[in-house]
Design goal:
This protein is α/β, with parallel strands linked by helices. It has one domain: 3-Layer(aba) Sandwich (Oxidized Rhodanese, domain 1), CATH 3.40.250. The chain contains 8 helices and 5 strands; from the N terminus they run H-E-H-E-H-E-H-E-H-E-H-H-H. A 5-stranded parallel sheet has the order 1-5-4-2-3. The radius of gyration is 18 Å and the shape is globular. The termini are far apart.
Length: about 150
Amino acid sequence: MLKNLLGLLLLSSVVFAKITNTPATIEFIEKTPMKIIDIRTEKEWKRNGVIHGAYLITFFDENYGYDSKKFLEELDQIVDKDEQFAIICNTSSRTKLISNFLGNKHDYDVVNLTGGMRELQKEGFRVEYYEPHKKRLYIKKIKEDSTQDNNSSK
């Protein structure tokens, strides 16, 4: 009886997880209406380029350290909790871990782009050069909006 109950609990956690694995293809990138979060490091963005319009939020640093609280705070500024979004890294090894973390532990509806940037570039995907000043534009906009809200309430 206990084995059956544990099996049911394990199965339900997989069934209710909001994680989808989808190959990283040019067609997906060009046609998807969902936001794409690029979790690679700044060094990788500089070296290999970025997807036009992708949101750049590093999860792991160069030494594989991480600050999950900071990552989640930045992610919450970009996506709504019930909004489906995609994540990408270089080969999808990191996004596999992070999509499980986001979907199972934090109830996000996440699409893991398998194969990552490496597969996209093998297909001939044209990346955009990384421009550091563009990385935080969305955060600046959110801060400006909240400042205006605070000023208008005075």
